Each structure stands twice: as structure tokens, then as C-alpha cells.
Amino acid sequence: MQDKTTLATKRAATSNRGQAVSADLIAVVIAVTNGEPRVLTIGQAAGALPSGPFELDHRSLQSGLRAWVERQTNHPLGYIEQLYTFADADRIDDEHVRRVISISYLGLTREEQPERSPTHGWHGWYDYFPWEDHRAGVPPILPDILVPRLQAWADEAGAPNMRGDRRQRVEFAFGLDDRGWNEELVLQRYELLYEAALVAEAMRGQHNGHTPAIPGRPMIGDHRRILATGIARLRTKIKYRPVVFELMPPAFTLLQLQRTVEALAGQLVHKQNFRRLIEQQDLVEETGETVSETRGPPAKRFRFRQTVLAERTVAGTKLPLSRA
Amino acid sequence: MQDKTTLATKRAATSNRGQAVSADLIAVVIAVTNGEPRVLTIGQAAGALPSGPFELDHRSLQSGLRAWVERQTNHPLGYIEQLYTFADADRIDDEHVRRVISISYLGLTREEQPERSPTHGWHGWYDYFPWEDHRAGVPPILPDILVPRLQAWADEAGAPNMRGDRRQRVEFAFGLDDRGWNEELVLQRYELLYEAALVAEAMRGQHNGHTPAIPGRPMIGDHRRILATGIARLRTKIKYRPVVFELMPPAFTLLQLQRTVEALAGQLVHKQNFRRLIEQQDLVEETGETVSETRGPPAKRFRFRQTVLAERTVAGTKLPLSRA
DNA sequence: CTCAATTATACTCAACAAGAGCATAATGAG
DNA sequence: CTCATTATGCTCTTGTTGAGTATAATTGAG
Fold first, then answer.
1. Which distant-in-sequence residues (6+ apart) come within 8 Å of B136 by Cβ?
2. What domain range includes position B296?
3. B161: burial class by Cβ within 10 Å (0-12, 13-18, 19+)?
4. Is residue B204 part of a domain?
5. Using CA atoms, how far apart are residues B303 and A61, in angstroms rounded to an integer?
6. Based on the domain organization, do B245 and B301 belong to the same domain?
7. How many CB atoms lie within 10 A of CB A62?
8. How far apart are CA B264 and CA B230, in angstroms?
9. Residues 6 or more apart whose Cβ sits within 8 Å of residue A123
10. Is there a single domain that holds both residue B174 and residue B189?
């Protein structure tokens, strides 16, 4: 009955299409191997995330992304989730002057075929963000290099209120205030380091070279920022949704599960509380086997309960993150 | 030192651009007026969200969106946040065969100029989703119309495991199991109703007309789905981030704040607990004035504490949602 | 003026979640 | 055999959260 107005509105909305843009799909693909979180990269310098243009024969954005990742890395993707879409002002096509829209995704898998390839590879994500791994305590880079240089940057601000603002942001993001370290603030930390021109990416073009970049492997374009976004999302998400299981083999011990979580969070976990939480949530069930790969009593093997598959979109896996 | 490989990788990634697409920006703009959450629409049937193509002179996606909303509705936007990006398979330009990528945003403001306009207007979001308002108890549409028709849809499935799967999804999304109603599942509910072909949008093109659509105002294209996404995001977000304040006037009473939260959540809140939570989080401060607009003792007026502006990106506003 | 309805506000209480520590048993490495 | 390492059970404290009770301050209706 309201078809007429509906169609009129629709025509108004679709007429006068904007200029053409091209759409890029970028993937942050994560696996955890031997307690190390790793990211899938392409290029010999491991400085790029798998990516490629969205094409006509892609049925959807997701399937386009899968196609690109599989073409570039031979690696099939399981779970994927959208991260963020942005349009860089300076991203222009070679021939035509055309905006590029980048749509980034987070993907979770298990690492396979560890043989080295010239076209792609897996790299520990703490190579890119050495200040993010707090499993063995606060990394020395933080008090020795990052914090002094960030504070110097805050102090060199012109206006006094800007100085205060910078100081407060640094203190908050890097856990210098009473709240302590918050492992979720990966992106905020990277953006501060970028703003303070301490990462290599922020120095491009300006060859003044008097300030050496801080440790941490750089990437092309804004790929490192996208990686930071993916890590932040994952660190947030494992706390309220059982996505860790996408990274686990079909059967695993509770310690392996814990090590995976710790690898992602960059922080240690209270073992007893971790087990209490996992078991009381009925997320796993025993397979019946036990293994004794290490010392200590044999550990039971578990598998993810398929029953919760339907509900897992909302079920929560809360994690007891500790400071020790 | 690794400039060479970096540039090589970059060239490889940027060459061979994909086909051109056009990018659409779509806005879900929300305000709460007199305890009713409302959404900004265009078109006489109020069946479309403000939207327009991303153009060359837009500095960024966000500024393009702001430009479109202000052009179409004369309404300036405050807080905005990205919702989701998708590429519909059937969305094709009139002249060239071109994919359309839609980037949707959630915007929060206060409603101004309530005079009626032919080009745009504000509409209560529960007009579009009558089953989502549980402030006065479970709405009758739910047990009377929706649940029976959804169960019929589940039962008409072919395979028995598909039947079970549908039943479980319906029970979970509509709170028929022991977990009860979860106000965050707005999108899941809409998608189930769409899948069951109970909403008008799902019947387009197929003029079989033997099944009347359920109550709830439809929108063009997938705009209603996008609105559902925005509502879901907002309902989730008010629980852990103080975004409600974007919807409030500069000064307000705690009851007004509570009514706003209840309007968004579609659920009532335990007053004493609400106040305890708000005050212990130091989110507000007294202005010193009191007002007695209604009966009862005069209420103190509060304002949002500017001090928390910097931290609010992470501060939490937890809400005590009750069932009564 | 009086009463009823409505609101602000202060407390209490039980249930539970979460961080942290203690204790004990089982196992393999040296 | 001894010990480091791990699995596992239990306790204890603290804070959070849902829910109820109680009381005082107002205004509008009659």
C-alpha cells in the first residue's frame, strides 16, 4: 500500500550516484602456535597483511576476503568478523584519481604447514608490538624507552592544557595511573606512539632522521594500525565470547587453552580461577583421554561442546586476568 | 633499510585495482525525546534513513556522512560511530553494472525543531519494532502474533534437525527459554522474522500475499535491518560506556536520565540501584539547582562531568536492568 | 486543608562473581 | 630418590548486583 512512496524514496536515494571508488579487503588473520600469537603476512619483509580489491565475481565482502587470503597464502579461513572500514584521504589510484575504501576483517584459524614460503608467512604479533607482551612482567622497553620518550613528547607541547591532555592520555593508555595496565588499549597505545612520531610509519616522507624509531617491526601503509585494531578487538572479545576455540585444535588440555588465552591477552591468568570459570560455563567436555606431554600428572583432554554452538553468539567466556 | 621490499610489496598490493564500486553512507541517527527513542528519517513515508554516496570532496567517511545528514535534514550531528559495512549482491547501479558498498553509522543527538517537514522527520523506533518495547511488560503482539507464527515457521521445516535448530533459535532470541528476554538481540529477532517471511521487506517481489505482515512499519531496502543493527549496538553500548549523555540536555535530573536509559533498553530499571551506580561512578555532578516539574520532592539537577571526557572512551556505565 | 499519589533518598540483605592463596596428589627428569 | 612441575580441590575475602524496606518531601485533587 505504500509501495509508491517507497519506490519514490528509493529512486531519490539511488539516483545521482557518487564517484566511483575502489574497495580493498584487508585481513588480520590470527593463529596461536606454541603459545605465541601469530599473524599471517605477505611479502618478504612480512610487512603487509593479505589484501586485495573487492571484485565483481565476489559474492560478498566476506567471500571476497576469503578468496584473496586463500589465493595469497593458500590458507583457508574459518571464523571471520568485520573490523573497520575507512577511506584514506591520500589513497589514490595510479591511473584515475579515485578514492580507496579499505574494509578490514579479523580472521581466526590454526596455523598449518609451517614450511617457509616466499609469498607469505606467520609472524609473532609481539614482533610488531613488543610493548604488548606482559606475560613475563612489564617489558623493559616500556620503562626504558617508551615512557620517557612519550613523556618528553607530552612536555614539548605548546599550550599547557595540551600538555596536560597528552600526559593524561599517556598515563591512561600505558597504565601509569592507579588503574594499571589495560591490555585492551592496543590501538590507543599505537596511536599515541604514532602521534608522538615514535614509530617508523609516522616518519615516512620526512627524512629528518634525528629520532630513531622505537623497537617493533613496521608495516606498509597503515597495516600495523589495522593489526592493532584486530588485536584489540580479539583481546576484548575473548572476555565475553568463546572465540578462543576457533584457535584451538579439536582436543586440548586446559593448560593449553589457558596458554592460548594468555598469549592473546599478553597477561598471565590465575590457573585455578581460569579452570573454575571454564568448567562452570559448560563450554568444554572431556574426551576421555589423558595425555602427559610434560611433567606433572596426566592432563585430561577436552573438546569444545558442540551443543553451545547455537548459543555461543551470546554465551560468555569470562577470563580471570591477574597481575602476577 | 627495508624500504625496498616494503615498496615492492606495496606496489604488488596496489596494482591491478578491482572494478569500481560506489560507496553509500547510511546514518542511523537517534535522539530520545520525552522518554521515547526516535530515529531520523527522510521521505514522506518515513521509510528511509538519511543516506547518500561518498563523494570526492568528502574528506573522510565520517565527514561525508555528516554532510549528507545535514543536507537532507538540516540537523547537525554530534557523536557518530561506525556500524557495519556490506555489499548487497543485488544492489546495482542504473547505468553501469557496479557494486554498491554501504557503510552504516550510528549517530546520537538531541532532537530539535519538532515542526513537521516534508523532507524529513523523527519517528519512534518502536513504530518499526513494536515487539522491542518491554517497559510496560511483554507487549501483547509477542505472545499473540509473533511467537505462534514463528513456531509455525519452525515446525514447517523439512528436516527434523532444521526444525530443532529453528525452534532453538526462536526460543533463544525471543526469551522463551530460562534465560528470559535479552534486550540486546534486536538484530537476531529481526533476522528471524525476516527469515520466516513475517516482515513486509521479506515479501517483496513475491506477490503471493496470503500471509499478512506482522505489525511494525517497514522501510526501503534493508534500512530496517540497519536500524535494528543500530539499536542493538546502542543497547549493548550503554551498558559499558557512558554514551547516554550524548542524548541528554546539558542539565537533567537522575529520573530523566533513568527514563532515557529505559527508553533505549526497552526495559525498566531499579531506581535505587540505578542511582547508586551512576553516582558511584562519578559520571555526574550537581549543578546546584533543583526542579520540581512533577509531584514529589524537588529533584537535583545534574550535569555530565567534563573531567571524565578524556577517560570516557573506556569508563563504564553499567546499568542495573531489572525484570519488573 | 487533607489525603493520596508520586518522587527522592537512605539502608539493608542475600546471592553471586572474582581475585588470591593454601594444600595435596600425580608424574617425569635428573 | 628427589624435586620441579603440573592437575586439582578448597577456602576466604571483597566487591558487585539484584531486590526489597523505609522514610521524607512534595504537589494535585477533592
1. none
2. 239-309
3. exposed
4. yes
5. 43
6. yes
7. 19
8. 11
9. A38, A39, A41, A46, A217
10. yes
Same domain, B149 and B191: yes
pLDDT tens-digit profile, chain B (324 residues):
334 344 334 434 444 456 678 899 999 999 999 899 999 999 878 899 999 999 878 888 999 999 988 888 888 898 999 999 998 755 455 555 678 899 999 999 998 765 667 788 899 999 999 999 999 999 999 999 999 999 999 999 989 989 988 998 999 899 998 888 999 999 999 999 999 999 999 988 766 656 788 999 999 999 999 999 999 999 999 988 889 999 999 999 999 999 999 999 999 999 999 999 998 888 899 999 888 888 888 999 999 987 655 554 444 445 555 433
Q: What is the dihedral of CA A276, A280, A283, A286, to 10 degrees?
A: 70
Q: What is the pTM of this model?
A: 0.90
Q: Which of A127, A160, A184 is the last residue of a domain?
A: A127
**A55–B93: do the CB atoms touch at under 8 Å?**
no
Considering B127, B143, B160, which residue would you say is the last residue of a domain? B127
| Minimal CA separation from A289 to chain B, in Å | 29
Query: In what helix (H) or strand (E) does residue B263 lie, and over which residues does it extend?
Result: helix B254-265
CB contact under 8 A, B82 and A87: no
Nucleotides of C under 7 A from a protein CB: 4-12, 17-23, 25-29
Coil/strand/helix, residue A6: helix
A319: nt with nearest C1' to CA:
C18
How far does A58 lie from chain B, in Å, by closest CA? 9
A258 SS3 class = helix
**CATH code (residue A302):** 1.10.10.10
> Could you write out the DSSP letters of every residue in A183-212?
TTTHHHHHHHHHHTT-SGGGGTT-TT--SP
Measured from the Cβ of residue A159, the count of other Cβ atoms closer than 10 Å reads 8
